[in-house]
Amino acid sequence: MSTPKPKKTSFIQGPISAEFIGNSIAKHQSKTTIGAHNIFLGQVRADMIDGKTVAAIEYTAYEEMAEQTFHEIREAAFAKYELSCLHIYHSLGTVKTGEICLFVFVSAPRRQVVYEALEFLVEEIKEKTAVFGKELFEDASYTWKKNT
After folding, report:
1. Is residue 39 in some structural domain?
2. In a 10 Å sphere around its CB, with 0-12 CB exposed, 13-18 middle and 19+ buried, how is residue 53 labelled?
3. Which pLDDT score is estimated for 104?
4. For position 57, which CATH number holds?
5. What own/partner pairs with CB < 8 Å and gap ≥ 24 does 17-23 have?
6. Distance of alpha carbon 44 from alpha carbon 95, whole angstroms
7. By percentage, how much of the chain surpasses pLDDT 90?
8. Pathway, per UniProt (predicted)?
9. Which of 25, 63, 95, 105 has the highest Cβ tally under 10 A?
10. Number of domains in the chain
11. Residue-wise pLDDT tens digits, 89-135
């Protein structure tokens, strides 16, 4: 009896590393029908809020609900655009300023579609996904992040 394949998740604990991003790109080199890739990398900013500087964001999520929403967003993108591949990864836990918290990667036979699809995807993710960020300030205080 074979073990069931673990369910693929869109979440990564902590920041998304350059190595992870590079490996994701490298895995697509054998897919020779792809003519274009486009990548969005969301990075934590050192925003100044009420005179305090953001040092990190602590991400939490309603994981099951968020995974379902990621799936629905993926399906909508595949229905709307001629895509070959589409990957969404979001951090959970603490991500410091300057580190990557969101990685969206699209591939298609032609370049124009990857620009349009990526913009659609990022806007849908920000608007619809049950992922929450607590902005942690340098003085150890915090505030809940509002998606803009």
Report:
1. yes
2. middle
3. 98
4. 3.90.1170.40
5. 17/100, 18/100, 20/89, 20/103, 21/100, 21/103, 21/105
6. 7
7. 86
8. Cofactor biosynthesis; molybdopterin biosynthesis
9. 95
10. 1
11. 999 999 999 999 999 999 999 999 999 999 999 999 999 999 999 99
